[in-house]
Design the sequence.
């Protein structure tokens, strides 16, 4: 199924640009070029429904430039992929992780945990955000707040509270943030304090276990690694 364009009924609503349910041989840019070539909408804002497509910063920049050349403004990206949401936020776009899914039934022992919990907003002192899989926070973690996950902890903001990744013992889990300045870091059963200096300009930071110790390194701002 190709990309679909739902034009706004009036000038108050944005156009809806929906990518196919599954990624195919064509890139997202090619899909959008095809649908715009067959049905060019009037100028106005556009909401992109990316679904499970993995769109990084360069991909979204190209889409943004393509739309801008047609007097269309990309204003929001809806996606089920945390990497796509983070890349959209990096471009200053509104993001939407999609409607909340109902809680799954209790899993049998050894079954994989839910893959991602997305939360938008700052965690303040006394708050605790916890996920059974990985957690993506679009906001800051203030001192006195906690964020924890059985998988990875991803923070599109400043991490200055307490973060615990791999709470069930996953030593491959990572903690990634735009600024990693926590009061305490934990990965599985290993504990460390955050660095005191500022991170390299334009780079996120990643904490992971290396030889049994938590090491913090620069990371790509799309959280890919």
Sequence:
């Amino acid at each position: 199924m190709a990309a679909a364009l739902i034009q706004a009924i009036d000038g108050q609503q944005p156009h809806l640009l929906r990518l196919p349910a599954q990624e195919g041989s064509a890139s997202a840019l090619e899909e959008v070029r095809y649908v715009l070539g067959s049905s060019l909408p009037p100028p106005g804002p556009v909401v992109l429904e990316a679904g499970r497509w993995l769109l990084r910063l360069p991909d979204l920049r190209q889409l943004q430039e393509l739309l801008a050349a047609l007097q269309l403004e990309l204003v929001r990206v809806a996606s089920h992929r945390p990497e796509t949401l983070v890349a959209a936020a990096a471009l200053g776009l509104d993001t939407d992780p999609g409607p909340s899914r109902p809680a799954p039934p209790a899993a049998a022992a050894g079954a994989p945990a839910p893959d991602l919990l997305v939360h938008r907003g700052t965690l303040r002192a006394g708050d605790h955000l916890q996920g059974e899989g990985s957690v993506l926070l679009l906001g800051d973690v203030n001192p006195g707040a906690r964020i924890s996950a059985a998988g990875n902890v991803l923070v599109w903001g400043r991490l200055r509270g307490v973060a615990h990744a791999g709470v069930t013992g996953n030593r491959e889990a990572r903690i990634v943030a735009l600024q990693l300045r926590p009061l305490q870091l934990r990965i599985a059963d290993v504990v460390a304090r955050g660095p005191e200096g500022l991170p390299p300009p334009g780079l996120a930071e990643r904490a992971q276990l290396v030889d049994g110790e938590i090491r913090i390194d620069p990371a790509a701002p799309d959280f890919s690694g």
